[in-house]
Amino acid sequence: MTPVFIRPAALKEGDTVAALSLSSGFASEVPHRYEAGRRQARASLGWNIVPAPNALRGEDYLYRNPQARADDLHWALEHPEVAGLLSMIGGDDSVRLLPLVDPAVIRAHPKVFLGFSDSTVTLLQFLRAGVMAFHGPALLADIAEHGGMHPYSVQGVRQATMSAAPFRFAPALEWTQGGPDWMLPELQEVPRPFAPSAGWIWLQGTQPAEGHLIGGCLEVLDMLNGTPGWPEPALWQGAILCLETSEDVPPPSQVGYWLRNFAAQGILQHAAGLVLARPRGYTPEMVEEVYRWVKKVLWEAGREDLPVLANVDFGHTSPQLTLPFGARARLAPAVGVFEVLEGGLSD
Predict the structure, then answer these.
(1) What's the whole-model pTM score?
(2) pLDDT for residue 196 is more than 70
(3) Can you give the residue range of the structural domain that contains 305?
(4) In terms of domains, do 68 and 112 share one?
C-alpha cells in the first residue's frame, strides 16, 4: 500500500519562491552565481526568487546558528505570499536541524520544496510529515547553470513541480560533471562542455513494478540513519528507492555496505524497485564495481527479481531531472519505461 501524502499546490509562472540556505551558507560567497540563478529561474520557470531572511547571512553565521536556518524553513512555509521553497545548495550538516524543525508546520502549510544532496534530510522530513517533496535542481547548481538552464533540467522541473499530470521520464542526450569555477564571475556565462550520454542501464529485473518514490543522497542518508529523522518502516514499504552519490566519490564497497544496511533493516526486501543515479567522479571500472556490489547485495537479500535502473540523470551530475518523492511511479524493464503514474501536486 502506498502511504497517503498531501500534494502541494502546483507552482505557476509569476509565483514567489523562497531560496533557503538550510545547510551551507555558500550563496553569500558567490553573489554573481546567486543573481544568475534568480535571473534564470525567472527566464526559464517564471519564478520570482526571494531569499529567506537568513539565507544570505554567510557561511559562518549559518553554521553557528542552525536555529536561523530552521526559522527560515518555517517562515517560508507560513508566509502567505511564498508559493514554493527552493534549496540554495547542499552541504553536510542540515541533519543538525532535526530537533528544530516542526513537522506540524510542514503539514499545515504544504508547499513544493525542491533540492538535492544535503537537502535529502529536509525532503525526508516532508515525507515524514505526510507531504510530497521534490528531489531536483538547487538554485546555485542546475538553475544557475553556466550560460542558462539546460532544457532538460527546465523540462524536469516543470513537469514535476508545475503540473499535476502524470509524466514519463526520458534519458538526457548529454551530460557533464565539471565546468568553470563558480568563484569567477567572468566565467558565469561560459557554457560547460557536455558529452554524449550512454543512456540508462537496466541491471536486473524483467517484470514491471509500481511504488512511491523515496530516497536521496547515500552519504546523507548514512548521516540520517538511526536519528529521529529516519523515515518510519511504513514509508519504505513498497517504495521505489532513488539513490545517488555525491562528489565525495565513496568507494564501490562503501555503496555496497550502505545497501547491506538497507537489507538488514528489511528495506530492500520490501522495495518495489531501485533507481540509481549516474555517479559523479567515478571511472568506468568503479561504476562496474558499484553495479557488481548492487547485484551482490540484492542476491544476499533474496531480491534478484527487483527491477534496477541505473545511470539515471539525477543527483550530482548535470543536467538532472526532478523526482516527486511520494508520488506513485512505475518501472517496466521489458519496455524501458520509468514513469510517474500520479503527479505530486494538486491542481
Answers:
(1) 0.97
(2) yes
(3) 187-340
(4) yes
